[in-house]
Amino acid sequence: MVDPIVAARGIHKHFGHLHVLKGVDLEVAERELVFVIGPSGSGKSTLLRCLNRLEEPSAGSVVVDGIDMLDPRTDINHARQRIGMVFQSFNLYPHMTALGNVTLALRKVVGKSRAEADALGMAALERVGLADRAGHTPGQLSGGQQQRVAIARAIALEPRVMLFDEPTSALDPELVGSVLEVMRDLRQSGMTMIVVSHEMGFARNAADRVVFMDHGLIVEQGPPAAIFESPTQERTRAFIGQIQRH
Amino acid sequence: MSTWDRFVETFFNAKVMLKYYPDILSGVVVTIELAVLIIVSGLLAGLALALLRALGIRPLNWLIIFVVDLFRSLPPLVIIVLIYFGLPAADISPSGFVSTWLSLAFVLMAFSEEIFWAGITSIPRGQWEASRSTGLSFGQTLINVILPQAFRLTIPPLTNRTIAITKGTALGTVVAVSEILGQASSAMSNSYNPSPLMMGAAAYVVLFLPVVVAARWIETRFAWKR
């Protein structure tokens, strides 16, 4: 990989005496979609959260789009605009409308006027198919719609990379499709994406690379077909076998 | 004279009431002044302490918790008496008005800090993370995302506590503040008749009943709906 847009090297993370990440290297090329899978507690969400420094890595380096994320001199609030994040539990602001959620950072961080922010916010809501829900509060939206608003909130800032932390795990099965649809569109627009998820069907169709993590380490990685059909590691085989039985 | 007439003459004596109602009215003004000062300064100080505590600086937080617990455990009257009769020994002689204001403001600060703090900590961590992940700073997140939600949760307990503490302005009578109760009791000793006390009680009801009713309305209005 010549010029990765995300380069995490030697990432360790301790929570007290728990050693959650034990030296993880992850490089992601521009426009690549990387899927991270693994049993719960394997450290995949923590790895994702280290990339935008929601978690402070105990050791290692993270460079995103040329910015050293762990350098104390880096303006982390500025750097985070380039890295969109979508959470399992949506985390929309319940006291604001959908448009308010999408435009908050545009106004407060980017410094857009309300009119400019509203225009960009509506465009982002349009992209996730929810322009007609702009005035609704999160409480008036379904889970799938809430997650799409959360995606709009992230893409409105025109990030270089999008992180998805189990974006469909909290959704009723019939709502998952609408969120995956939006993610597929993003993918087609050339967005670099790192996705922690159990949506294996989506991984097969859309991912460029699948990374399997266990016990704080990357065990195996490769194209989806290779990981799903012919994993070389015993642990990967066991995990793939388990999830495919469902 | 019938028993009823005697009762009316004792507690609702028109002549006495007419003579002393301007005094009671001036007491009402003092009570309102005190109440407004206590509420504004007490709540602002409480919010400021809660925000300081949100910064998460350990030694500072211990200090805040100590001060807050101190003022929550001391009876307000004890604080008033300490300031009014104690401070002059250190060559500071606050008036009864200032002593009452400061004491009750400190108590309201302590209780409201706890309520604001509970509100801030009850907002899920995901709200902080979502906001910070879009580049908002700690302060911007606090102001735009956390506090608007926290205030909503704190309004009912805050209103109740504010009413309870503001009613404590009556304690000012101990240090010669001419608020409602002070005016009413001096009028009673001058007239040898308890009618002014009845007027004083009525004045408190007129002053605080609307606030209590408003608080009830606020409580239902702000019940948390997701």
Structure report:
The complex is a heterodimer of chains A (246) and B (226). Helices cover 38% and strands 24% of the residues of chain A. Chain A is built from nine helices and ten strands. Chain A has helices at residues 44-51, 76-80, 98-110, 114-127, 143-155, 173-188, 200-206, 224-229, 234-244; strands spanning 6-15, 18-28, 33-37, 59-64, 67-68, 83-86, 161-165, 192-196, 209-214, 217-222. Chain A starts with 5 loop residues before the first strand and ends with a helix. With 226 residues, chain B is mainly alpha-helical. The mean pLDDT of chain B is 91. The interface between A and B is medium-sized, with 26 and 20 residues.
* Percentage of residues in helical conformation of chain B: over 70%
Radius of gyration of chain A (CA) equals 18 Å
> What is the mean pLDDT of chain B?
91
Strand order of the largest sheet of chain A: 6-7-8-3-9-10
Q: What is Rg of chain B? A: 22 Å
Of all protein chain pairs, which has the greatest interface, and how many residues does each chain bring to it? A-B, 26 and 20 residues
The CATH architecture designation of the domain at 28-179 in chain B is: Orthogonal Bundle
Given the C-alpha coordinates, what overall shape of chain B results? elongated
Q: Structural class of the secondary structure composition of chain B?
A: mainly alpha
| Largest sheet geometry of chain A | 6 strands, mixed
What's the N-to-C terminus distance of chain B? Answer: 65 Å
Tally of DSSP β-strands of chain B: 0
SSE layout:
The complex is a heterodimer of chains A (246) and B (226).
Chain A: E1 6-15, E2 18-28, E3 33-37, H1 44-51, E4 59-64, E5 67-68, H2 76-80, E6 83-86, H3 98-110, H4 114-127, H5 143-155, E7 161-165, H6 173-188, E8 192-196, H7 200-206, E9 209-214, E10 217-222, H8 224-229, H9 234-244
Parallel strand pairs in A: 3-8, 3-9, 6-7, 7-8
Antiparallel strand pairs in A: 1-2, 1-4, 4-5, 9-10
Chain B: H1 3-11, H2 14-54, H3 58-73, H4 76-86, H5 96-121, H6 125-133, H7 138-166, H8 180-191, H9 195-221
